[in-house]
Design a protein that fits this description.
The protein is α/β, with parallel strands linked by helices and about 270 residues long. It folds into two domains: about 160 residues, Rossmann fold, CATH 3.40.50.300; about 80 residues, Orthogonal Bundle (Helix Hairpins), CATH 1.10.287.1770. A six-stranded mixed beta sheet has the order 2-3-1-4-5-7, sandwiched between helices. Strands 6-8 form a two-stranded antiparallel ribbon. Helix 3 crosses helix 11. It is globular, with a radius of gyration of 19 Å. The structure holds guanosine-5'-diphosphate, potassium ion (K) and magnesium ion. The site of magnesium ion has 5 residues, from helix 1.
Length: about 270
């Protein structure tokens, strides 16, 4: 039995897609937070794959119950695949969660939803390039209109239970070196494929993780010093350093794969 988790921002179309993939009729609502309890069902025609609709979240911080449920499921249950439902009309904001999903090193497929809406705007997203830059399969779909959902289903079957092929998003070098030093303190305590996730969470001073992982006083102090040094260098708090690093990375990617209609008009005038 394989488990495929649907993750994504609230209102990105997770439940609509869940219904398409499973043939279920979960209530779809045009407001955030409808999926409080997570729902599951078989991938239609495939009794060996269970689809799990997770609560919508913008982040994997431990601040809301949705975030806690979603990240607990991802980090502890380790699904065989995560399908990240990205609202193409809000690409930048949605990619913020995508990057965090990539920090878990779980196998990932991005379903770029609402392409029917983007089509009517001046924006063009080069999906192949987005996929190449992320190192993750990206399928443009419309869950509402059932466009490309069959192709997504194929990707789900092909990628479930495989190893993640993407590289971790690489942030500012000074941040990377701090994360590397934290990882060294966690080596032997945290499984190697989870080191990136835990190093970032320790760096962010994530309370849940600091409480959950038992470290001796020396390691704790060492990590505190690494964080403190980074905060001095960046003149910023550690959690903001990470937020900024993710948004910088997103800006770079979006700059390479999105064309605005205005780009053409400006170059012609
Ligand atoms: P969730 O919060 O992620 O579960 O999102 P929902 O499935 O509840 O969808 C939120 C709203 O977006 C609903 O009104 C859906 O009908 C609509 N929606 C979902 N997918 C699409 C799509 O591909 N295209 C369009 N135009 N609307 C969509
Ligand atoms: K909703
Ligand atoms: Mg929902």
């Amino acid at each position: 039995m394989k488990t495929v988790a649907l993750a994504g921002n609230p209102n990105g179309g997770k439940t609509t897609l869940f219904n398409r993939l499973t043939g279920a009729h979960q209530m779809v609502g045009n407001w955030p937070g409808v999926t409080v309890e997570s729902k599951s069902g078989y991938l239609q025609g495939e009794n060996s794959i269970i689809i799990q609709d997770l609560p919508g979240t913008y982040s994997l911080s431990p601040y809301t119950s949705e975030e806690l449920i979603t990240r607990k499921f991802l980090v502890e249950k380790k699904p065989d695949l995560v399908v990240d439902v990205v609202d193409a009309t809000n690409l930048e904001r949605n990619l913020y969660l995508t990057l965090q999903l990539m920090e878990t090193k779980l196998p990932l497929v991005v379903s770029l939803n609402m392409v029917d809406v983007v089509k009517n705007t001046g924006r063009r997203i080069n999906i192949d390039k987005l996929s190449y830059l992320l190192g993750v399969p990206v399928i443009g779909i419309s869950a509402l209109k059932n466009t490309n959902v069959a192709q997504l289903k194929e990707k789900i079957m092909k990628n479930s239970g495989t190893e993640a092929k993407y590289h971790f998003p690489e942030y500012d070098k000074r941040l990377e070196s701090a994360l590397m030093m934290i990882s060294k303190n966690l080596a032997g305590i945290i499984p190697s494929q989870d080191l990136r996730w835990y190093a970032i969470k320790f760096f962010e001073r994530d309370e849940e993780i600091w409480q959950k992982v038992h470290l001796d006083a020396t390691r704790k102090e060492d990590i505190e010093n690494i964080i403190g040094t980074a905060e001095k260098i960046f003149e910023d708090s550690s959690d903001s350093i990470i937020v900024n690093a993710r948004y910088e990375y997103i800006a770079k990617i979006v700059g390479m794969c999105v064309v605005e209609k205005d780009d053409f008009t400006m170059s012609l005038s």
